[in-house]
Amino acid sequence: MKMTVLAATLAVALLSTAFASAAATSSTQTAAAAAPTNPPAVWDLTPLYPTTAAWDAERLAIVAEFPKLKARQGTLGKDPQSLAAALQEMFDLRRRLWRMEIYASLQADANTLDDVAQSHAQQAFSVDAQMDETTSFINPEISAIGAEKINAWLTQEPALGQFSYFIRNVLRLTSHTLDASSEALLAAAQRPLEGPHDVFNLLTNADMPFPKITVRGKTWTLDQETYTLLRTDKDPKVRQQVFKVFWTLFKAYERTLGASYAAHIRGEIFKANARHYSSVLDMKLASENTPDAVYKTLIAETNAGLPTLHRYFKLRTRLLGLKQAGYPDVYVPLTSKSPSYTLAQAEATTLKAVAPLGQDYVNTLATSFGKSWMHAQPQRGKRSGAYMNGAAYDVHPFVLMTFNGDYESMSTVAHEWGHAMHSVLANAAQPFPTADYSLFVAEIPSTTNEMLLADYVAANAKTRAEKVFALNQELELLRATFFRQAMFAEFEYKAHEALEQDKALSGSDFSKIYLDLLKRYQGDAQGAMHIDDLYGSEWEFVPHFYNDFYVYQYATSISAAAYFAEGIEKGDLALRDRYFTMLKSGGSADPYEIVKRAGVDLASPEPYRAVIRRMNHAMDEIEALTAQ
Question: CDD domains annotated for this entry (predicted)?
Fold first, then answer.
C-alpha cells in the first residue's frame, strides 16, 4: 500500500528571530481558533468500517472483483474507451483496497502484541499483493499501444483525462516494463520480499527483551519510546547509562538484524536487475522522474557543510559545561529541560504558530484537531515513531504518534498534522488517481509547520534561557533533519553499493560502515564529539532503511521548507499561494517539477547552502545571548 508517512526521527524547529515577530503578530489575529480542551488521544476507526466483520466482508468483496478486472487483459489497445474503462475499474478498486488496508494496518500498529490485528494486517497486505498481480498486465499493454496512438487517444477521449499523468509515466518507463507474465511474476514476489521488514518491525517493537533501568529511584522499561524520553535527561551519567544499556541490547541482535537488512537489499537488487536498472537508487529515482543530481548534490553539499555542524557540537559542549561531548549528549537541551505540555496545549500552540498560513488553514486544522483522527496515547506494544496515513481518500487522514508531554511531542503534533492537512488539501482538489502525493513533497509542509511552531515559541520567549532553548530547537531540527538524514542517505548508498558489487555484508559490516559515517559527521577526529564504537549499532534502529532511498527526502524537504517558512512569515502572499498550489497538486505531475514550480530547485546547491547559512545565523544568535 502506498502511504504518506511521517518521520520516525523528528526534532523541533525555529527560524531566525529576525522574522519570528511576524508569526507572533499574525497569531494574535487568529486567537479565536483554539484547540478543544480535551482532544481525543485515540483514533476512531468506525468511519472506515463500523465493525471488523464489515471490514472482512469488504476484503472478500474486493478479492471477488479481481477476476472481472483480470478479464480485461488483452483489451486495452482496442480503443480509447476500452483503455479508459479498464483504468477506471482499476483505480476504483484500488480506492476501496487502500481504505480496507489502512483499517487493518492502523489496528496492527496501535498494538503490535495483538496477534489477531497482526493477522488481519497480513490478510490485507496479501490482498494488496493480489491486486498487484491482477493489474500486472496493464502497464505492458499501455506500453505496447505506444506513445503516438496514446497521445491521439488522450485528445479524443475525455474519460482518459484524469489518468493522463499515470499513462504518460507508464510510457516513460517502457524500457523498464516487462511482458505481462514477467510483470505478474514480479508482483507475486513482492509479498515474500517484504518478509525482512516484517521481521524487523516485530523484533524491534514487540519481541526484543527491553531491559529495566532505574533513574533516580524510578524503574523504567527501556523500550524505544522510553529511550527517546530519557536521552534528554539533564544528568550526563543518566544519559550515558541509557545509551549504554539501549545500544548494548541492539548490539546483541546485530547478526539477526544484519541478515534481515541484507536480505531486504538483495530483494531490491533483484527487482532492479529484473527491470534493467543499473542500481536500486536508479530504480527508485526513476519511478518519479527525479534527477540523480538531487541525491548527489545533497550529499556533496552536506559534506561541504560539516564544519558548521562541528561548530554546533563545540558550542553545545561549551554551553553544557562538558569537557568533551559524547554521543549521549546530542539530544539534551542547551538550557533547561523542555517545558511540559498537555495535548490540548500542544494543539492550541500549533494553531497560533501556523497563523501565517492563513485563517482558512487554521480553521480547518482546529476543526480536525477536535475529531478522533489521531492515536497519541502511550501504550505498550504500540508501533514506535510517528506517521500520517492519508490513504483513505473518502474518509480522512489518520495520525499515529506517542505524546510524551514535552516540546518534541508538540513539534511532532505540528509535523504530522502538516502531513494531514496536505492530504486534506490534495484530496479536496484532485480526483483519486492524482490525489496521492509523493514522499518528495510530503516532508515539506510537515517541516514548514515545525519551523512556524518554533518561530512562535521564540517570539514569545519570556527569558533569555527560553530564547536560547528555542534557538536550539532550530539547530536541532537542522541537525536531525538535514545532516542526520543526509548521513542516513549516505549509509544507504554505501550499503547498497557494496551488495550490488556482490560483497557479503554481515551485521558487523553494516555497523562499521555506519560507525565511520557517524564519526565523520559528528566530528570525532576534529574533537567536536567523541563517538564510542558501540554506537555503530544505531543503524539497526532505523525503520526507514526498509523503505530504500527515502530518507534523503527529509533533507531536501527541510531545505525547501526553510525557503517557504521564511517567505510566508515575511508576508509574501504570492509565495503562500504557490505553496498551497503545490500542496493541492497532489500527484498530478512529477514531484521534482511540482516543487520547482513553487520556486525551489532541489537539484541545485543553493537550497542546501541556505540551510547552512541559517544554522550559522542561529549559532551567532546563541553566542550573542550567552555572551551577555
Answer: M3B_PepF
Q: How confident is the model at residue 41 (pLDDT cuts 50, 70, 90)?
A: confident
Query: Distances from the Cα of 155 to the Cαs of 87, 150, 174, 315, in angstroms?
Result: 17, 9, 21, 61
Q: Which stretches within 460-506 are classed as H helix?
A: 464-478, 484-500
CA 143 to chain centre: 32
Contact 532, 524 (CB under 8 A): no
Whole-number pLDDT of residue 333: 81
Is the separation of the CB atoms in 35 and 96 below 8 Å? no
Return the C-alpha cell found at 110.
496501535
Please report where in the chains the cell 556533496 appears, as a residue.
300
The three-point CA angle 568-571-577 to 5° equals 55
Is 40 a residue whose pLDDT tops 70? no
Between 396 and 10, residue with greater pLDDT: 396
Residues β-bridged to residue 399: 374, 388
As a whole number of angstroms, the distance between CA 101 and CA 132 comes to 14
Lookup: cell for 257: 538484524
CA distance 113 to 109: 9
- CA distances (Å), 93 to each of 96, 136, 212, 432, in order? 5, 14, 47, 11
pLDDT of residue 38: 52
Largest interatomic CA distance in the chain: 78
Spatial separation of the C-alpha atoms in residues 369 and 43, rounded to whole Å = 11
DSSP 11-71: ------TTTHHHHHHHHHTTTT----SS--SS---TTT-SSHHHHHHHHHHHHHHHHHHHT
Whether 299 and 489 have beta carbons less than 8 Å apart is answered as yes
The average confidence (pLDDT) of the chain is: 90
- Helix/strand/coil for 545: helix
Is 154 within 8 Å of 167 (Cβ atoms)?
Answer: yes
Q: Which strands form 387-389's sheet, in the order they lie side by side?
A: 374-375, 398-400, 387-389
Confidence class for position 628, pLDDT limits 50, 70, 90: low
- Residue 457 near residue 476 (C-beta atoms within 8 A): no
Is the alpha carbon torsion for 550, 552, 553, 558 positive or negative?
A: positive
Q: What is the mean pLDDT of residues 228-252?
A: 95
**331 contacts 225 by C-beta, under 8 angstroms:** no
What region does 604 belong to: left with phi over 0, alpha with psi -120 to 50, or beta?
Answer: beta
Contacts of 303 (CB under 8 A, 6+ apart): none
206 pLDDT more than 90 = no
Tell me the CA distances in angstroms from 470 to 7, 211, 283, one per residue in order: 21, 33, 40
CB 14 within 8 A of CB 468: no
pTM over 0.90: no
Where does the pLDDT of residue 85 fall: very low under 50, low under 70, confident under 90, or very high at 90 and above? very high
pLDDT at 1: 34
Between the alpha carbon of residue 583 and those of residues 417, 418, 440, the distances in Å are: 13, 10, 12
